[in-house]
Amino acid sequence: MTSRQEFFAGIRAELPLMVGVAPFGFIYGALAAQLGLPISIAQAMSAVIFGGSSQFIAAPLIVAGTPALVLILTVFAVNLRHALYSASLAPYLEKLSVGWKMLLAYLLTDEAYAMAIAHFQAAGEPKERHWFLFGAGLTLWSFWQASTAVGIFVGAQVPSEWSLDFALPLTFIAIVVPMLKTRAYMICAFVAAIGGVIAFGLPYKLGYIVAAIVAIAIGFALETRAEVGRG
Length: 231
Fold this sequence. Notes:
This protein has helices spanning about 5-15, 20-35, 40-50, 50-65, 70-80, 80-95, 100-105, 110-120, 130-155, 165-175, 185-200, 205-230. With about 230 residues, it is mostly helical. The chain has two domains: about 5-160, no CATH class; about 180-230. The longest helix has 25 residues, at about 130-155. The radius of gyration is 18 Å and the shape is globular. It starts with a helix and ends with a helix. The relative contact order is 0.16.
């Protein structure tokens, strides 16, 4: 496909997930407003950090006057999973310029990664497929900025009974389930789920990172074993 086709394919692939992402951004904006975070800082966090989970954690820490080093380390720990995403995508994007890599790294999110890796593994012109990730990432970025702004200004009026906080887990379920096509993937997902529950009490949300690393290691070992068996 051409760069234009790849770009719009990325947009089309990402749009269905915005049903879950937009309410999540709305909730973040509402939370930031309720905490008393200045509007400029609340919106800037969506543009600079651009990470839902880390923004939810950072907002109350900023309001509480948490030391900068603690704040930075906490956000770093929560976003450490993105290093795993980058490692997974690196073989497909290694020939890009530094400028392209920096841009795509900024736009890389859970949802953009899920759509991109599935597309990269299935098809796509090697020279142009980075446009798919660009389209997917830009779509999510745009919805995130807009939904955050709406949440900041009107989110505080939303009744708590609406339980919009379920939007995020529902989004991830929609991403993960269709990808569980092999025994290794299913075991990896099961280990991650159980590990996340067991390690939930670790500080700074490190339980999620530990569970992810263990699950990925097990999944990789199973895939390697399967490949050796087929060979």
